[in-house]
Each structure stands twice: as structure tokens, then as C-alpha cells.
């Protein structure tokens, strides 16, 4: 270890650090004369350095004790790097195809060394704004979600294993509190942090703050978010936490990881695809009306859920043979009828949770503190508001009516109807 | 501290121990010549000594590393005493009127020194079997449940406080696993531990093991039991964990305490009152048909819920003034209509959970490993089975139909109808 106490790195101290850490310097073939370092942290929270040498490469991610995009005025524990590293490793074991390798973790320095996702990997959100189709996206993300969520739940593990891990991730409470505030609280009250396309959406934002039914629904989801230790969720699975090429899909940045409801991850992904969908009209240009692309997004939403459903049930069936988790013992769930019944109840509940959390994520991105580039990159505010409003309307509908959705195709119909 | 490592005490080593512990010997006015020690552990798990001197008294409870009633063949961590002591102190702070004082705790020895609940305190279950009315019972138990459950929930606390305590009680996992097995698993499958009044209830026990709908319901409750960290529950709040006189009600033995669903405690109490109700015909004798007593039990069930509801909502209202918990921020829940809406949803959900868990506790006491004296003391098996069967029928109905119950009076009607 290079340093005995925390210190924020810059490009020159980073080189010193790398030289002192064998697992990193070996990645570069111990050749340092030609390495190139680039700071690329475009996220909200951390510093990220790409380190490339002639013999290898990696990424160094360092958490600082505040939120980068706001500054030292919003402190945030750097211990989040520890939980990110533990989650990356756990999810990586369960789904190595879609989680980058961790080469090195230094808790004192809140620093992770991990695989550099080389070009042409880009952030999925940027691909969606550019109108690029990713034919394997639904397949890959559904695999990631099914394997990580199933594999860290009581469908797979004993209560003993489960509770030990739950206890550990209770330590990531500061990040959970941030989500509680920005997703489940601020958008529903007057807050200095809220913003929206104004004056266009002034009434829409106000309507949300005055909608008692909506506020009762968000309370249930917030409580479920805090109380329900269903699985080790990524905790921030939007389209900015996924890097893609045509062949590869890699999930990054699980620093918000904790034991929470599975629907929070599934909803984050689906909700952000819905935001991408509604933003497309704002990106239409002559010769590219984005109509076909919108259809691809809808297919991806539908396929993601359907493939997730299939893979999740397959893992459940497979696990029965291997020795199951605590939740459904084969001595009790011992005939195909009861197995089908409990699986169908479980997945139906999960769809409802996912729609609810997805809706909450949509609302907060339109009237809360942190917005998405899908909409922000539409420079004409009238055009932007015209994209945002139907997204908001859909989200409100989903929050209130999610329990009536029997299948994902009903969601697709609802999206079509509202646009 | 008297001993540097764990050692099971007997009456003579207990005296040595007391002499070495100031907080205990002071309770006896440091007079040891006239003290009387009586071992009274009639529970399933621990050794309990009553220590009475001329100047004072206390109880010493020591956990051994196995389940007392089964023996060393069923090991069980003695660390449960630690969780019992923490829960007694926490619940005692929140509701000092109904939780005995803890004078001393020794983690190494798994030993608690606490208030001796002097005669005429008896175990409530014995009072119910004897047909004794306790006019303050509903008032006292509802106060205990409202204060301890509200006070350890997100209605009262920040997420930071909540998750720290959740993490700690994840350590009591062995006791949770015991509950999972005996309440939520064994009764629904073939298990060497199950027993029932045979052959009378052979078909009834089999029907439970073959009821797919019932097994789907118990799966949901089991998962909620493990996953949902709603409040620090007692974890074993049956009528054997409550000591009573006409004026006093004291809740003891929270060694199963953990962060779980509130309905598990409420259901345990109500479910055991229902067992007491259905056992009464077995205790009827000439000149005392127990009819009036059954009515008192029904009134107590109804009042317990209604008083709990009232006190819980009052705590919620009061807490709003003082600075609320994380779940319902006043900036969002800012008009009386929305407050009423969320409170009514919360309590309605809680009633359903309570009925479900209550039903699960009834079933396990009739076809599972550990039975209740209410029925066991009916020596004629035909008579006993005739009491047990309607209790089982009601429990099955509640498990399946609990979501249709809008008020506690519906429960009372269902009980009357089935008996």
C-alpha cells in the first residue's frame, strides 16, 4: 500500500501509488515510461482515472469525502468505495460476463483498481441519445439482474449467509439516505434542490407535491426501500451505470449497493429506458424521426422483463436441484402446481415493485435535483417540456396503478397510449 | 465479574457469583445469610433462578448453549442472552411500565439479572387456562406493543439509527432460524418434530401439508419475517411471555428479538388469545361453562387491537411535533387528508400482517413441535381435538383471507362463526 492514510490523488501522485502496488504495476508490465493517465470522472460523485500503458490498462476510481458535482458543502462518506468494491466482487462472481474485474482495492484510500472498459465502450445513456441500437442489451441486462438479484436473495441463500451480508451493507447507510432524499422525498415537497423545465412544468411539479394518492404510494415505496432486505441491489442501475458496445454490456458504479428490494434495480433500468423513449422526439432531426428507434426501445423494455422473468425462474428451478435457499424449501413446495403458484406470485409482485420504483425514478429525474442528459441535451425548453410531460404522466399512472399490471405488454400499451 | 469464562451456574456457584457482582449484592443489601434461591425455568430454553433475601430480590436468567427442553442435541447460541438484554433495555426505555428492569448483564456468562416479578404475578397463559379475567390486559399489552413497535420503527427514527440497530440484531440469526423452522416450515411438510392429537387430527395435519394456497401464503409471511426490518419485535410474544396480576402486566423473555414485521408480535399475542378461546370448552366444568370467559377473551382481542390502533396513531401524531422518523416527513405529509390516508393504509396493512402471523402461530401450536398448555392440559384427546380443529380452521381461513378483513370486529365475527 502506497499511503498509510487517505489522500486525494492527482495524476502525479497516482503514478507513485501505482508503482507501489504490485497488482497494479504488474498490469502495466512494470513499464511506467509510456503510461497515459486521463481523468474522466463525468459522474456526480468520484474521481476516475484511465491508466493505459503499452502492456496493459486499468481504471482507478477514488471516492472523496463529499459529492463531487456539488462540492465539499455536501459531505458523503468515502467508505462508499468499500461497499462498491464488495458489490463489484460479489456481483462479478455471480455474473462475470457483465461486471468488470476488480484488480485492487484500498480501503484507506477509498480506491478501486479495475478493468478499463476500452473503446468502443460508451455509456449506454449516450448511445440512447445518439439513437444507437444494442441488439444484445435486453439479453445482457436481464442476465445481470437475474443472476445478481437471485444469487443474493433468500431464494439462493440461507438466512445465516443473508443476514451477515445484510448487516455489513447496513453500513452503506449514507448512500441509502441520499437516495431516500432525492428519489422518495424531495420531489414530493418544496425543496431548494428541486428543479424542472420552468415555467413550462411549474404546474406539473406543483401537482405532484399536491397529489395525496401519489404521496401515499411513494411512502410505501420509500418504506420498502429502507426496510426490505430482499437482495443485494446495485442501487443506481440507470443507463449511466452501464457501458456498452454492440457485443458487450458492463455494469459499473454500484457504490449505492445495499440489501433492498429487487424492483429498485429493475425499475431503475426500465424507468431510464422509458425516459430515453420519451426524450427521442426531442432528438429527431430531418431524415431521422427516431420512430423506428422508439420501437426498438419499447422492444428492449419488453424483452428485458420477459428475459429476466425466464432467467430468474430458470435459476430458481436449477437451484432446487442444488440445494435451495431458505425461502422455498422443496419439502414444502413439492409439486409443480404449488411451485408455479409461488413463482407466479413472486414475479407478479416483482413486476409491480419494478413499475413503482421505475416510476419514482422517472419523476425524480424530471422534477428533482439530478436530471438526465436524455432530456437536458434538448436545448429548446418548450420542446424539452413537451417530452418530459408525458413521461411524468406515465410515471404518475404507474405509481398509482401498478398493481393492476399483469404483464409487461400492458406497460408497452400504456406507454404508447400516453405519448 | 465473577468468572472470566462461561460456566453454567448451579445454586451454590450462583451465590458466589452474586457476591462478586455489586449491582446484584447491593440489591440484597449485601446480606447473604438468609437468601433463598429457587430454580423455576419452566420455559423451553433457559435456567431461571429466583433470588430472594430479606432486603430485596431479583431473578437470574442464564442461557445455555443448547435448547433446554430438548437437550444438548439441539445446540443454540447462548449469545441470545445478549440480544435479550439489549431488547429488554430498549423496550424498557420505551415502555417502562410493562417491561421488567434489568439490573445486570454479563455477556461472557450469558446471564441477566433482572426484576423478580413477585407473587401474585403468574404467567398469563396459566391465568387464561384458569379462567381468570384481567381487566387491564388489553390496555397494557396494547401500550407495550404500540410503544415498542412505534419507537423502534422508521416512524420514529432516522434511517441511520435504524440501520445500525438492524445490523446489530442480524446477529441474533440463530433464534430467527429456529422460528423460521418451527413456525413457517415444519408444519407444512413432513418433519420428525411435528406432532398433533392423533389419530383425531391426522387428516387435518395432512390437509395442511397438501394445501397449495396455504403454502403460498405461508411463503409470503416467511419471507416477510426474514426480509422486512420494520421494528425491533419481541419475537415470541405469546401468552407465556407475559406475567400478570390484576393490576400489572409485564412482558418478559425477548430473546427472539430482531428487526422484523410488527405484525409478528401483534399476531403472536392475538393468535394465542384465540388459542385460549378455543381451548375453553375443554376446561368447562359443571357450574362453569366458560361461556362468559370466552366473551371476555373476545372482548380482549377486540380491545387490544382497537387500543393499539389508537395509541399507535397517537404516538405518530405526537412524534410529528417532536421531529418525526424518516418514513413520513411532515414537509410531504402536510395536510390532514394525506396524513389520514397514509395512517389508514399503514394500519390496515398491519392488521392483515397481524392476522396472517397470528394464524401461522396458531397452526404451528397444533400440528408443529411445540404445543401450548391451553390445549395440552385437556387430557381427553377427543375433547382436545374437538377444541383444536376449529382453531385450525379459523387459522387457515385467516391465512388465506386476511386481506379482506377491514376491522377487528370482522375477526370476532369469524371466530364466533367457526366455533
UniProtKB/TrEMBL annotation, chains A, B:
Keywords: ATP-binding, Kinase, Nucleotide-binding, Transferase. Pfam families: APH. It comes from the Eukaryota. The keyword Transferase applies. InterPro entries: Aminoglycoside_PTrfase (IPR002575), Kinase-like_dom_sf (IPR011009), Methylthioribose_kinase (IPR009212). One of its GO terms (molecular function) is ATP binding. Residues 37-275 form the Aminoglycoside phosphotransferase domain. One of its GO terms (biological process) is methionine biosynthetic process. Homodimer. NCBIfam families: MTRK (TIGR01767). This is S-methyl-5-thioribose kinase.
Amino acid at each position: 500500500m502506497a499511503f498509510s492514510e487517505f489522500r486525494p490523488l492527482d495524476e502525479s501522485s497516482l503514478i507513485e501509488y501505482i508503482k507501489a502496488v504490485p497488482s497494479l504495476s504488474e498490469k502495466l508490465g512494470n513499464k511506467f515510461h509510456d503510461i497515459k493517465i486521463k481523468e474522466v470522472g463525468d459522474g456526480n460523485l468520484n474521481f476516475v482515472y484511465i491508466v493505459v500503458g503499452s502492456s496493459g490498462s486499468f481504471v482507478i476510481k477514488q471516492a472523496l469525502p463529499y459529492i463531487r458535482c456539488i462540492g465539499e458543502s455536501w459531505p458523503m462518506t468515502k467508505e462508499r468505495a468499500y461497499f462498491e468494491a464488495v458489490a463489484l466482487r460479489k456481483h462479478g462472481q455471480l455474473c462475470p460476463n457483465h461486471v468488470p474485474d476488480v484488480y485492487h482495492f484500498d480501503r484507506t484510500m477509498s480506491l478501486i483498481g479495475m478493468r478499463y472498459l476500452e473503446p468502443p465502450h460508451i455509456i449506454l445513456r449516450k448511445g440512447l441519445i445518439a439513437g444507437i441500437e444494442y441488439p444484445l442489451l435486453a439479453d445482457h441486462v436481464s442476465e445481470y439482474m437475474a443472476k445478481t438479484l437471485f444469487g443474493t436473495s433468500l431464494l439462493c441463500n440461507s438466512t445465516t449467509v443473508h443476514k451477515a451480508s445484510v448487516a455489513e451493507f447496513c453500513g452503506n447507510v449514507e448512500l441509502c439516505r441520499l437516495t431516500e432524499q432525492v428519489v422518495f422525498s424531495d420531489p414530493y415537497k418544496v425543496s431548494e434542490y428541486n428543479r424542472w423545465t420552468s415555467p413550462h412544468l411549474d404546474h406539473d411539479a406543483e401537482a405532484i407535491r399536491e397529489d395525496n394518492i401519489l404521496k401515499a404510494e411513494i411512502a410505501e415505496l420509500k418504506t420498502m426501500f429502507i426496510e426490505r432486505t430482499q437482495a443485494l441491489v446495485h442501487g443506481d442501475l440507470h443507463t449511466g451505470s452501464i457501458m456498452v458496445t454492440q457485443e458487450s454490456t458492463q455494469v459499473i458504479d454500484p457504490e449505492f449497493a445495499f440489501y433492498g428490494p429487487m424492483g429498485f434495480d429493475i425499475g431503475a433500468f426500465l424507468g431510464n429506458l422509458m425516459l430515453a423513449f420519451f426524450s427521442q422526439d426531442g432528438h429527431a432531426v430531418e431524415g431521422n424521426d427516431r420512430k423506428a428507434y422508439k420501437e426498438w426501445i419499447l422492444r428492449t423494455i419488453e424483452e428485458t422483463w420477459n428475459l429476466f422473468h425466464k432467467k430468474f425462474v430458470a435459476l430458481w428451478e436449477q437451484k432446487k436441484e442444488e440445494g435451495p435457499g431458505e425461502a422455498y424449501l422443496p419439502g414444502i413446495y413439492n409439486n409443480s402446481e404449488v411451485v408455479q403458484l409461488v413463482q407466479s406470485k413472486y414475479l407478479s409482485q416483482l413486476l409491480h415493485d419494478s413499475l413503482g420504483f421505475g416510476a419514482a425514478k422517472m419523476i425524480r429525474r424530471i422534477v428533482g435535483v439530478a436530471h438526465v442528459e436524455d432530456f437536458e441535451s434538448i436545448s429548446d425548453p418548450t420542446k424539452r417540456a413537451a417530452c418530459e410531460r408525458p413521461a411524468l404522466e406515465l410515471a404518475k399512472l404507474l405509481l398509482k396503478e401498478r398493481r393492476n399490471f399483469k404483464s409487461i405488454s400492458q406497460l408497452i400499451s400504456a406507454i404508447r397510449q400516453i405519448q
